[in-house]
Design brief:
Two copies of one chain form a homodimer. Chain A is of the alpha/beta class. Chain A is 43% helix and 16% strand. Chain A has helices spanning 33-40, 44-51, 59-72, 78-84, 103-119, 135-147, 160-172, 197-209, 233-247, 263-276, 291-301, 315-323, 334-351; strands at 89-96, 123-130, 152-155, 177-181, 191-194, 216-222, 252-258, 283-286, 307-311, 328-331, 359-361, 365-367. In chain A, the strands form two sheets. In chain A, strands 2-1-3-4-5-11 form a six-stranded parallel beta sheet, with helices on both faces. In chain A, strands 7-6-8-9-10-12 form a six-stranded mixed beta sheet, sandwiched between helices. Chain A is elongated. Chains A and B meet through helix 4, strand 2, helix 6, helix 8 and strand 12 of A and helix 4, strand 2, helix 6, helix 8 and strand 12 of B. The first copy, chain A, binds a DNA duplex through helix 2 and helix 4.
DNA sequence: TATTTTTCCGTTACCGCACACGGAATTAAA
DNA sequence: TTTAATTCCGTGTGCGGTAACGGAAAAATA
């Protein structure tokens, strides 16, 4: 059981022992723009011009400089760069508005985290919220963002066509954008951070059924009049249904629609559901973030015989988990998605490097009453 | 459902509308050292002296400058700072050595992530490995690290007494250090990143038993001659046992010791275990990262009737999960722990700010065959 | 060929900070 | 009082870039 490599044992410490050029530390790269200029026989102004494609450089010099840059392995020092060019980068985030305790609040938290990171590089972040049920407000938001001439955009798309129109404009203005939550089928985006929706439904079904003898699964859904707006949880429901029909061919999947705005209405619907089927051991799923609606009902009715699975780490959901009205929660960490999105754009602006992966499917964490405390 | 705040709707874009002083953006802080100097009626050299406690400043000037700094809310620009002071910060990490596919490899991955972050701030990272079963090699490592005069240290402690001695020296030299994986009872550390061990055992038992009628739980352990070295999984086992005795008072917990170095020996022990108890439906737990040993055995023996739970996202463990020889894995993401540790020290060195929380218990992710793909 | 335009490039002044250097003012020693 | 030692502080240079400015060389036009 020897050390796999000698890194620790040898040069212990000194981060660049003189004469050593082992690439391990990759930090000794002290080649400056002046070195490049000298080696290319030009002035640093010229080098800077090719570095930023500012033109006014002869083809010959340009090639020479590019060659030298590659040979020397020159990489600009971005402290100096940021210091000298006092640009005001701005990244705008377009997300649905929300009330306290709702899903998109998590995303905003992530934006705050991202702001902290970006702030270190002199990049500011602003969030533009829109009503996810109101097309016009979305268009409004897009216009405002465009008007603010951002250096990058993070967007959680809800309206397909309008979003496509919007990102087309971004592309024309060479503004990089990254999708969070869900993405569209264009491929001009810099990156995407979201949950694998189909798989999350599949996973959810597995946790719900858990090898038991399940005859019926109740899917509770939000009654909404969708007017061309995309429902991201649709795919999730497909995954759920697929799992059931693969593993429990005789199991029914029944939909119940509830109203997010009226508690009485919800109770009535759920009462009906329970009345229609005498078996008190029910398997219940909610594919969006509002499983706390179900938990609230169960708590009030004193029903503890159901197995309930939901999504997302909302405070209300977690407390339902702790109280035992919900057995498991699947978390997608939309905060981390937002933060990663901002980080990706920041790095793109500062380091001129794209993210390693374009499509990033964040992990699906399974929470139960014993580990939920550690998810904030 | 109106926007919770008007941020998005109002100033849409402009990152600092003139006249607005809302702290939200916290970026507009353009007060330089020169502004401070002017306001205090001294030169920037003097301001610099008090900023760095370099002395040679009269009490009177010092106080005045400090006052002005506070009043103006001056915060140094750390690009300029790093650029001007070409210091060579070094963070050393002391962790156990490992072979490919073993637990500590994850930690090293995290160190690499941390290196990328720290590298941006001109900070280099080096890793010093030690044999976790050899006290002397640990002492060796500590000495080497001390000799390299690091600006900060990350340490995964295995030997209690020696570690305490070591961190005492660090403290004397004003070198900040952070614990990962486990921590000791001193409190001079800058931060700690690790898993809540007791809770992880408790959680593990919950997942293993899963509401079933469990009569006996088999805990597989590594036979090791411990000579005063601390076993971090001990606490985990305690949590496990506590859960069982709380929820399954009639359930036995039986230990089986296997040898990590000899497969035959392992098979023999496990054969014995299966022979001793005719019931093929066994509940098996391994409290360290090597549940793949059990999976390997089950695969070879063609046994599929057991419920097995283990820890950590090693490649072998994940494939056992996929193949169905292990039902669940609890992940502690030691990579993230290491990366966070490095980030914490980096921020401390650059921003002079400690981490928000000193003790950070990372989340315990539950992996099964349907979500494991998204954990790398 | 003389003049204008275009193309291309070097020079230079910062950006905000760190730190060396040298000098004025004050105090101690002679 | 003269000289030496302290104490305190301002100035200046450079870190590695950015970008404005102006001018020389080459090309186009007269």
């Amino acid at each position: 059981m020897k050390a796999r490599n000698g890194r620790g044992r040898s040069g212990a410490g000194r981060y660049r022992s003189p004469g050593t050029n082992s690439g391990v530390m990759e930090e000794g790269n002290k080649i400056t723009i002046n070195d490049v200029a000298k080696a290319a026989g030009v002035s640093k102004g010229t080098v800077d011009r090719v570095l930023h494609d500012r033109g006014e450089v002869s083809q010959k010099s340009r090639e020479k400089i590019l060659k030298v840059i590659k040979e020397l392995g020159y990489r600009p020092n971005f402290y100096a760069s940021i210091l000298a060019s006092r640009k005001n980068y701005l990244i705008s985030c377009i997300i649905p508005e929300f009330n306290n305790g709702e899903f998109w609040e998590l995303t905003e938290k992530g934006i705050d985290q991202g702001r902290e990171y970006a702030g270190r590089f002199g990049i500011s972040i602003n969030a533009v919220l829109y009503d996810q049920y109101d097309l016009e407000s979305f268009q409004d938001a897009c216009e405002k963002v465009l008007a603010s001439r951002p250096s990058g955009v993070v967007i959680a798309p809800m309206f397909r066509n309008e979003t496509l129109k919007f990102v087309k404009e971004l592309t024309e203005n060479h503004i990089p954008y990254v999708y969070i939550d869900s993405k569209l089928e264009d491929d001009g985006y810099l990156a995407y951070y979201g949950m694998p929706m189909y798989q999350s439904g599949y996973l959810c079904a597995d946790i719900l059924t858990d090898g038991r003898d399940v005859r019926k699964v109740h899917v509770i859904r939000i009654a909404r009049d969708k007017r061309g707006l995309s429902d991201p949880t649709l795919t999730r429901r497909t995954g759920l249904v697929d799992y059931i029909s693969e593993h429990y061919p005789d199991c029914d999947v029944e939909n119940t629609f509830i109203d997010p705005k009226s508690r009485e209405e919800r109770y009535r619907k759920l009462d009906e559901m329970f009345a229609s089927d005498p078996d008190p051991d029910k398997y219940i799923v909610m594919c969006n973030s509002r499983v706390h609606f179900v938990a609230e009902y169960l708590r009030d009715r004193g029903i503890r015989s159901c197995r309930v699975v939901g999504f997302d780490v909302l405070e209300k959901n977690v407390s339902a988990l702790k109280d035992g009205y919900v057995q498991a929660l699947i978390a997608q960490h939309s905060d981390r998605q937002a933060a990663s999105a901002i980080t990706a754009i920041t790095d793109y602006l500062i380091l001129h490097s794209g993210p390693q992966k374009k499509d990033n499917y964040t992990q699906m964490d399974i929470l139960n009453k014993y580990n939920c405390d550690y998810y904030l």
